[in-house]
Structure prediction request, 224 residues.
Amino acid sequence: MISKAFYRSLPVMAGYIVLGIGFGILLRNAGFGVLWAFAMSVFIYAGSMQYVGIGLLTGGASVITTIITTIMVNARHLFYSISMIDKYKNSGRYKPYLIFALTDETYSLLCDDKGPSADTIDRYRFYVSLFNHCYWITGSVIGSLLGAVLPFSTRGIEFSMTALFIASFTEQWITSKDHIPALTGLISTVFCLIVFGADRFLIPSMLLITLILTIIRKREESPK
Prediction:
């Protein structure tokens, strides 16, 4: 069980360690030590939001600004997490943590993964989520410690988040036989990017993806 969950999480480990190190270095350069890196990674655990959060901390953002920014940055979770409602509804004591730990990469691993057996699927999902969380915490702490002793140029380091999304898309494309969801996401995102622009395409693209996938699902479930 644990070994299977660990093996399943290995692709995310490679990305989260590197991304966490990048976050830890940026946070250290902003004047916040290792305890900040550890606490943010344990209790916030939202990669892109943690990167954005550094600017909010250094810029003295208000509570309202922080709340609005968090909702905008993490709005995509509201859409893709809908597909996990049925999977998580009977997960019992594991449910609170599974909901909290559902990142983009964890979702890509678990959305089509039926686990070793139906009786142990909730525990399996818990371990996959926990391993991924630990990778992120470890990377953040390492980055903070490295940033304290070694000089780093942080220019362009934010691109590491984009690289991880590309890696997750590629891994899901390779492991899944059904490419319709992936193509729907790709085409809808490009379309909304062209129509709404780089600053406003995220929410419309999520809405469009949700609408298209809902229609497809209803057609598949309808009696023939």
Q: What stands out?
A: The longest helix spans residues 121-149.
